[in-house]
Amino acid sequence: MENDMGVIVKTMARATIPFIGIFGAYVISHGHLTPGGGFQGGATVAGAGILFLVAFGLNEAKKRYDKGLYSALEGLGGLAFLGAAMLGLSVAFFYNILWRNKIAFAGHPGTLLSAGYLPIMNLAVGLKVFTGLISAMMAIALFRRWRK
Amino acid sequence: MNRTFGALALLFILGVLLIIANPQYGLKFGLGGDDWQKYRYTDQYYIEHGVEEVGGTNIVTDVVFDYRGYDTLGEATVLFTAIAGAVALLRPWRRDEDGK
Asked: Does this entry carry the keyword Transmembrane helix (chain B) (predicted)?
């Protein structure tokens, strides 16, 4: 069944999807320096996935979507977020012990490797939002109830 | 008529809320003492101490992931619950498969 769009849309999607992904990865990884963060970057990367589904159709997207992998990655993102929050549990929950005791990610403020657990949390939340939105999109696209 | 009264009542409630929430002569809830404003209006504190205490130059990320981390945890839980609910509601049920 042909449910993809035409050649023009597919070519444009091939050209733009990598850039959308790169921009989303930039927003996630620079979340503690520039505007943006895990939620926004994850939603941007998920937008690339939605563009893929719209342009190439459901059958093509179904081949590349692995339910178990995406579920595992979403759980991993949530657990990494919780784990980064529990690192400073000796003082308090959500205590930024990596930054205050200069253990890791303790560079000068404004560099990429600074701000303690903030980059870890941004990566975890970005992964969680990306996989979660892709899972929701695939659920809505796959499980339609209406008849043709 | 009733709609006019409703709109006037809403305006009255809004005015009362504005008076109550005014930091000059409104209700002082929270900690007592003279420095209650310091504990209630914390934005200037975040701007001045955020880079030194948390490390990120993006103050919004500092607030979201460190000062108000519980809120972000709840937000991630809301996202997870919404997706789990969507998948659970939308998946094909056993009743749909036979015939209808």
From this structure: yes
Contacts of A118 in chain B (CB under 8 A): 54-56, 61-62, 65-66
Q: Is the dihedral of CA A136, A137, A142, A148 positive or negative?
A: positive
Q: Which range marks the domain in which residue B14 is found?
A: 1-30
* Strand partners for A109: A111
Distance to chain B for A86, nearest Cα, Å:
11
Which residue in A32, A93, A128 is closest to B56 by CB distance?
A32
Contact criterion met (CB below 8 Å) for A137 and A129: no
Buried b (16+ CB within 10 A) or exposed e, A84-119: bbebbeeeeebbbbbbbeeeebbeebeeeebbbbbb
Using the Cβ of A115 and the Cβ atoms of chain B, whether some distance falls under 8 Å is answered with: yes
Residues B80-100 have pLDDT tens digits of 888 888 888 877 766 655 554
A136/B82 CB distance under 8 A: yes
Domain that holds residue A126: 7-142
How many domains, chain A? 1
**A34 in a domain, yes or no?**
yes
**Residue count (chain A):** 148
Distance CA B27, CA B80 (A): 38
> pLDDT per residue over A26-35, tens digit each?
998 888 888 8
Sign of CA dihedral A24, A25, A31, A33: negative
Partner residues linked to A52 by β-bridges: none
Number of structural domains, chain B?
2
Could you tell me if B5 and B47 lie in one domain? no
